From TrEMBL:
Single GO molecular function: potassium:proton antiporter activity
Main location per the UniProt record: Golgi
Localization (cell): Golgi apparatus membrane
Listed GO biological process terms: regulation of intracellular pH
Lineage: Eukaryota, Metazoa, Chordata, Craniata, Vertebrata
Keyword Nucleus among record annotations: no
Gene this chain is encoded by: slc9a8
Name assigned to this protein: Sodium/hydrogen exchanger
Membrane topology: Multi-pass membrane protein
Amino acid sequence: MFRPNMFFLLLLPPIIFESGYSLHKGNFFQNIGSITLFAVLGTAISAFIVGGGIYFLGQAGVIYKMSMTDSFAFGSLISAVDPVATIAIFNALDVDPVLQMLVFGESILNDAVSIVLTNTAEGFFSGSDNSTVTGWETFLQALGYFLKMFFGSAALGTLTGLISAIFLKHFDLRKTPSLEFGMMIIFAYLPYGLAEGIKLSGIMSILFAGIVMSHYTHHNLSPVTQILMQQTLRTMAFMCETCVFAFLGLSIFSFPHNFEISFVVWCIVLVLLGRAINIFPLSFLLNFFRDHKITPKMMFIMWFSGLRGAIPYALSLHLGLEPIEKRQLIGTTTIIIVLFTILLMGGGTMPLIRIMDIEESKSRRKNKKDINLSKTKKMGNTIESEHLSELTEEEYEAHIYQRQDLKGFMWLDAKYLNPFFTRRLTQEDLLHGRIQMKTLTNKWYEEVRQGPSGSENDDDEAELL
């Protein structure tokens, strides 16, 4: 049997950290307002609609009757979207980068928000004595608890990331990449353990630590460790994701099910309705403030890409519901919703995008790429140029003065934060980095030449060069 603790302590952190670490910062922070609104307010709207719907339908005797707390806990856990299939198809089809970033950014933050909301519903309502407080007071207390979890965890993750940047700036471990890599792994997991220890959200803090570490700490690493870090994280995230989906498939046969057709059908209807009430009004509202408008086609694709993944399933196992048939009912319903959205909506995304013509027309002509259903990118895109910094102190200063268009936080970051948290390379460092890379390449090249398939023909080699 799949234990939720194993999921939350071992399988989820690498997935979330990697999504923060390999995030395309530019697009993410340009759309941060929209992403946050969809992820926080949108998820809350969706949770309230699903939770409220289940509670009132239960009271009316249409479906299985559940308490207010259980309904909202279920509403919160089923609101975590995980558009793995959608993101993979977006990558393969070259859709609008803004649409891609809105769906991806929302899914990253939304996992954390959903977990915090579920814990709020479960921990708060079950822990408080509801007989004496009014509904309004309960709501305000729950909101306070949620904000404390959200901002406390984010601050803890950011702080850990900044400490790691200062540490690796002043302790020069570039000559020993294995030690450097070890420190990075420790700093990556540290905020998760700390946050869980002090009853905050580990997922939220490890996400922010990932974003901060890739922005500052990454530039303090030697070139070898930079590549090693990205590849290792991607491999770990991919493996964890695969394990989780394998567990999800096996879970169909791993515990006794309690299947109620009315409950399942109403839940699916409420989930789709909640997603629609989240996406369409919020997009309409955001278009008043956005330069790059969210078109009705994009809204429809965003609504359609609300796939549910492994997180709702793990959360449903985590809920300590009594009696046992209620727990089984929630578990069974969650699995059915996850499979329904992944197989039906995930499978329908590609034809839908083709029909709706979201793809760039010129890319469609040359587009016969294979689709790899994972958030992991292919090797070509892995070592992003923004991640291999090769600017010395003087070059960096010149670079800043050329870019007069930076405003607000971007300007503050470029002028003060970046120089403070990242080390500017001296000519000697650059030379050392290049020698390190060259040595590695030569070593690999020698091994290839000596191998069984190595071509000894110098003419071929010259032609290749």
